[in-house]
Amino acid sequence: MIATISEWFWWDRLWLPYNLTWSDLQDKEGRVYAKVSHLYITVPLAVAFLVVRYLFERLIATPCAAFLGVKEPMRLQAAHNSVLELYFISHSRNPGQADIDGLSKKSSLTARQVERWFRRRRNRDRPGVLKKFREASWRLAFYFCAFVGGLVALHDKEWFYDTRQMWTDYPKQSMLESQYWYYVLEMGFYWSLLFRITFDVKRKDFKEQIIHHLATLILLSFSWCANYIRVGTLVMIVHDASDVLLESAKLFNYAKWEKTCNSIFVVFAIVFLVTRLIIFPFWVIHCTWVYPLDYYPPFFGYYFFNVMLVVLLLLHIFWAYLILRMVKKFLFSSLTKDERSDIEEDEGDSSMTEDGDGHPKATNGSSCGGSANHH
User: For the purposes of burial, counting CB atoms within 10 Å of the CB of 186, is it exposed (0-12), middle (13-18) or buried (19 or more)?
Assistant: First the structure.
C-alpha cells in the first residue's frame, strides 16, 4: 500500500516535464542535482534554530531591550476567586452580560467587580512588551542575515537580472552550494517558526500566518524536488527584502521611539507594496507562468507551483490592505490603533488603571503598534 502511494506520489509526470524522468536528474558529468533527501536536514536545523533563538533572546535581545529602555507596563492583578477562575478557564474569557450577572450572584461580587476581575485576568495572560521585543529581535537578526546572504548568492547570476535565462536547460540545472545553504537555512527557520507559533505572541492573523508558513514550506519543498531552485531563491529574497524593515519598526515601537517607528513603517509599507504587489507578481510569477511554456508543455508541477505562488500573492494582498489602512490613518488622521495584520489583542485594558469608583482611565498610548507579519 505504502509502496503504491509512494510510486504514485513520485510519478514523473507530476513533477517533471514530458519526456523527462528522474533518471535524467542523476548526478553525472560534474552536475549535482537537488534530491529530497537533502531536505531531511531542515528538521534538525529547525531544532538548532530554536536553541540558538533561546540563547539569542536572553543573551542579546534582553540586554538590547534594557539599553533601549523597553519596560513592562504595570498591570493590576486580579484577586484570587475560584468561581470566576473556573469560568475563565472552562467557559469564556469574555462573558456576556447575562453570565456576568450570574457570576455576580455566585461570587458575591457586584457586576462591576466581576467585569473588572475578568479584565485584569485577561491582561495577566497577554504577552509582555519584552517578550514581543525578543521575538522581533530574533526575526530581525535572521531576516537581515538571510537577505544579505541572498544578495551574495545571487548578485553574480545572469538569471537574477534576466529571468528568461532562468529556464535555460531546465530541469538539467546543476545545484550550487550557495543555493543549497540558502534553501535549507530558510526552510529550517520556517519550520522553527511553525514549531513555535502556538507559544509565540498570538496575532490577529494567526490563521493566515499558519497558512503562509505551510504554503512557503510546501512551495520551497516542491521547487527543490522539481529543480525550480532558481525561482525559489527569487521568491525568498523578494520576501526577505521588507521583513528587515518590518521587524525594525516593531523594535522601535516597543521601545516607544514613535517617530523612528513611524518613519521606518512608511518605508516598510513602500518596500512591501513594491516587492510583494509589483515585483512578485510581475517579475517572479510572470517568469514562472509565461517563460516555461517556451521550453516545455505545461504539466502538473507547472500548475501546482504557480497556484502556490498565487496563494502567497493573495496573502500579500490581504496584508497590503491592512497596511494601507494603517498608512491612511497615519497620514490623514490621528493614529491611535494599529491596523496592521499582526496587531495583538487590543491592549487598551492593559494600559489602564482604575480610580476609586472602578472607572477605567487611560495611562498611555502608542502611535505605532505591531507590524504586519507576512513572510
Answer: buried
Peptide bond into 17 cis (omega under 30): no
Highest mean pLDDT among 14-28, 80-94, 284-298: 284-298
Q: Which residues of 232-248 are buried (b: 16+ CB within 10 A; e: fewer)?
A: bbbbbbbbbbbbbbbbb
Rounded Cα–Cα distance for residues 200 and 191 (Å): 14
Over residues 188-193, the mean pLDDT reads 93
Residue 288 is predicted with a pLDDT of 92
Query: Among candidates 345, 338, 343, 364, which has minimal Cα distance to 353?
Result: 364
119 sits in which H/E element: helix 111-125
Longest dimension (CA), the chain: 83
| pLDDT, position 277 | 95
Q: List the Cα angle 63/65/69 in 5-degree steps.
A: 115
Q: Are 322 and 341 in contact (CB under 8 A)?
A: yes
Whether the per-residue pLDDT at 342 is higher than 70: the answer is no
In sequence order, the 6+-apart residues with CB closer than 8 A to the CB of 175 are 32, 33, 34, 227, 229
Q: How many CB atoms lie within 10 A of CB 40?
A: 11
Q: Regarding beta strands 352-354 and 360-362, do their DSSP bridges make them parallel or antiparallel, or are they unpaired? A: antiparallel
Residue 112 has pLDDT above 50, yes or no: yes
